[in-house]
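Give me the fold.
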Amino acid sequence: MIVLSIGGSLISPTDHSGKTIGHIEMGYLKRLRRVILKRVARGEQFIIVTGGGGPSRAYAKAALKLNTKAKEVDRHWIGIAATKLNAEFFRVLFSPLTHAVVLGDPTVHIPLSSPVAIAAGWLPGHSTDKDAVVLGHTYNASMIVNLTNVDYVYSGDPRKNSAAVVYPELTWKAYKKVLGMSVFHPSAHAPFDPVASAFAERHKLTVTIANGANLANLEKLLEGKKFKGTVIKP
């Protein structure tokens, strides 16, 4: 079993100002589907977890702007709703090879007769990163991969700081120092959120962070070949 967490920005991106562009990355998703189905044909099984992306952040920010008393927990629920929309879309995208419904509670192991199952956000307080590692633990996954929009974990934003340090490999303890935060917020940007990191460290899970836009690199990763990305270990 491979757990693949796909950042929402890869599904529904935002422009440089942070505004939702308003389209689905059809070409990218068509190629991603081809990559996954190739692995399925070789007998592999996947749980794909979808993030909320631009719509998640846009709605959460709009709610707070229009109602300054909007509770953070309610903004979390907005984000979760966005992940569920993407999850239903992915369930159809990979049909008829998908489990009949989007997975719910990630702590509950249910028999999966289909080669692809789709999951989304579940509870407030963390991003879908947490759901991915919980699912990885629940299903004893051989690999947990978090696909984001950067090649590696860096000491800073490489798009703004050309001197940002690249980390091809980290322990969870070292990663927490690089991340520099312990609480997840609905609009937070991080390669892997702190709540998920704590769970992965506690259960001695290994997570690979890679750029989901580079599908040739993803294929190398899935094949066990040399790839670009950061491996975070216990």
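The two ends are 20 Å apart (CA to CA).
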